[in-house]
Amino acid sequence: MLEMQKDVIRRIVREVFEQGNVEVVDELLAEDFVDHSLQHARFFSTASDREGFKQMALMARNGLSGLKAELDLVVAEGDLVAARVLATGVHDGPLMGVPPTGKPVDLADFHYFRFKNGKVSEHWNQFNALEVMQQLGVVPQP
Description:
Oligomer: single chain
Largest sheet: 5 strands, mixed
Strand order of the largest sheet: 1-5-4-3-2
Shape: globular
Radius of gyration: 15 Å
Structural class: alpha+beta
Number of helices: 5
């Protein structure tokens, strides 16, 4: 069961974010899925349901060309999976309210997923938005 849960997370990273196949979200996320990530509401202005997750993924892909995401660490226990994702891309589309800069973005973010009946039912995400804004030149480096 734990390996199956890890495989679902691998598919989300590979198929949804890298390949842009948002239709697979309906297969991998529960109908009553809830995204508790504050960043999504603040920076992407998306709903906290499956449709909002799809919109957020497309916004990330449209804002960062050549988006590559790699699972650096995946830990599963019970109904929870924690993952550290390393992502890179070039900011050549609007992203988090910032017009394209052409600058590379390199970030690590942390995701926590709760499973119910083999599908993701809840999600929490934490990333360093300040670091991203500094890489884009919106906020000065310290």
